[in-house]
Write a structure and sequence with these properties.
- The chain has about 120 residues and is of the alpha+beta class.
- The chain has a single domain, classed as 2-Layer Sandwich (60s Ribosomal Protein L30, Chain: A).
- The chain has a four-stranded mixed beta sheet.
- Helix 2 packs across helix 3.
- The model has no long low-confidence stretch (mean pLDDT about 90).
Amino acid sequence: MCDRLTITLPLRLAPSLNLLLRTHWAKRRRMLREAAWLVAEARLAAGWDRAADPANVRLEVVRRSSRRPDFDNMVGAAKLAIDALVLAGVLQDDDIPHDRVVFRWEHAPRRADSCLVVTVFLA
């Protein structure tokens, strides 16, 4: 099993918290399933064979967008991605210690370059 897994999700699957809270539950469910498929694909390609204990991982979440989000929106955007990690079998559950998650923002000059990059490191 590898010690690092990187998943890139388009921003339509990682909306800001403001948008996520206003999205109909059925649409949120479809977004979660699509994100879980992308995560599962990356998991299989990397040879990640079992769900990791959240206490033994470190997450780095990088939002690339043309506009800098406030911190709440950046963290909220990661909710769908973290739920997809659990649904796809990368993590056992989403109870990750707060000191093991890092959130960053990077400027993406074009909208087409916008994405959410989640990297899971085994400790």
